[in-house]
Amino acid sequence: MNIPVSPSVAHQPLALVNGRLVDGQTYDCVRGGILILDGKILDLGPEVAPKNLPVHSRVIDCGGDFIAPGLIDMRAFVGEPGGEHRETIATATAAAAAGGVTTILARPDTNPPVDEPAVVDFLLRRARDTGRVRLIPCAAMTQGLRGEEIAEIGLLQQAGALAFSDGAHSIANSRVLRRVLSYARDFDALIIHYAEDRDLAAEGVMNEGEFATRLGLSGIPREAEAIALDRDIRLVNLTGARYHAALVTTTLSLDIIERAKAAGLPVTAGTSINHLTLNESDIGDYRTFLKLAPPLRREDERRALVEALSSGLIDVIVSDHNPQDVETKRLPFAEAENGAIGLETMLAAGLRLVASGEVSLQRLIGAMTLRPAEILGLPQGRLRVGAPADVIRFDAEAAYVVDPSKLRSRSKNTPFDEATMEGRVKLTLVEGRIVFEEE
């Protein structure tokens, strides 16, 4: 282990030892450690142990906890600009750091939307000045998110946008979406689309079915998602553009994604941690914190999503972090806004699937790290020599009760309010810098 000796604290090696390494590809609970120098992974594996380290290293004994890449969240609303009453970059990234999320792809449906290079530049500067973790702008596909005129994808990409989406807005006009996909293909840009037939969804507020009928609430049929997604995939076949389905939540959609992948189309898919761990019955007595878009589905649909995650058909897990203030959630269910916060609880909620034996830990971590990194073309998200030292330490068995008042997000609309969770992040590093450490 050849480590340069430097008297500077800034260049002091940092070693996490006595841990269990896990990532999405190479390491599956391998005993060992990780050595970090100048913001990158210098060495890792069983040989990284106290006896092999130079005396000037800073050593953190992980006591058998897991060491993993920092999580990459491909769908989160961070508030700025225009929604600071719901969230700010400072509060969102503080929550992310506490939850082990080291990279956020920020949604573009802000006010003003991220449809101009100046707004991309604003986000990057605000993230640099006030953020704790990496924040990458996702720019708008259409001007003003109206689904009518294409945004300047080339200029937005040059400004620093890594992907293109209209956030929670679905493009209804197939001609416009075809043009977006064709334009994006020429720039090798990734399109992330929220697939929903808005006319079919209409005024629905939860999943259509027996449970909605018993609650007296209008339903949204599964077909509202599947029809739009099927249209999207046909346009991908026509244009050859890279396409990511932002949120897949039904078996109908899974069938469409499976056929697209079998045909070799450049298609990937994500789902939210909420749809993997909750179902429509959890809404119970009109719990508005569980009013989401897409709505929570039946238990058989949830189980199908988990199986698709385990098999790799679903590539990515997202928090779908969507903070809402008290005024928009403390309303009758039909009138409340959609959305739940999730940056701080995404990992712990996912570990429920590991504890139940439904998904392996390596697959769970891979869907939150390696696959998002591969789709976005990022160097982080993996435990590899030379990779950025975006690393977390977590105890998968540490139990706690979710107390909304202690969450770092500005809004407190967590669907796991007062739930008992297992899995606590103890340390979060971004480029080797400690951005969160459990007290």
Structure description:
β7 (101-106), α2 (117-130) and β8 (134-139) form a beta-alpha-beta unit. The relative contact order is 0.16. α2 packs parallel to α3 and α7 (223-239) runs parallel beside α8 (251-262). The chain has helices spanning 89-98, 117-130, 153-159, 174-186, 198-201, 210-215, 223-239, 251-262, 273-277, 299-311, 326-329, 346-355, 361-368, 370-376, and strands spanning 14-22, 28-37, 40-45, 58-61, 66-69, 71-76, 101-106, 134-139, 163-164, 190-193, 206-207, 219-220, 242-245, 267-272, 316-318, 391-401, 420-430, 433-437. The model has no long low-confidence stretch (mean pLDDT 96). The radius of gyration is 21 Å and the shape is globular. It has a domain at 70-376: Metal-dependent hydrolases (TIM Barrel, Alpha-Beta Barrel). 30% of the residues lie in helices and 23% in strands. With 439 residues, it is of the alpha/beta class. Strands 1, 2, 3, 4, 5, 16, 17 and 18 form an eight-stranded mixed β-sheet that branches. Strands 6-7-8-9-10-13-14-15 form an eight-stranded parallel β-sheet, with helices on both faces. A two-stranded parallel sheet has the order 11-12. The chain has 14 helices and 18 strands. It comes from Methylocella silvestris (strain DSM 15510 / CIP 108128 / LMG 27833 / NCIMB 13906 / BL2). Residues 353-436 form the Amidohydrolase domain. Its EC number is 3.5.2.3. It is an enzyme of class 3 (hydrolase). InterPro entries: Amidohydro_3, DHOase, DHOase/Allantoinase_Hydrolase, DHOase_cat, Metal-dep_hydrolase_composite, Metal_Hydrolase.
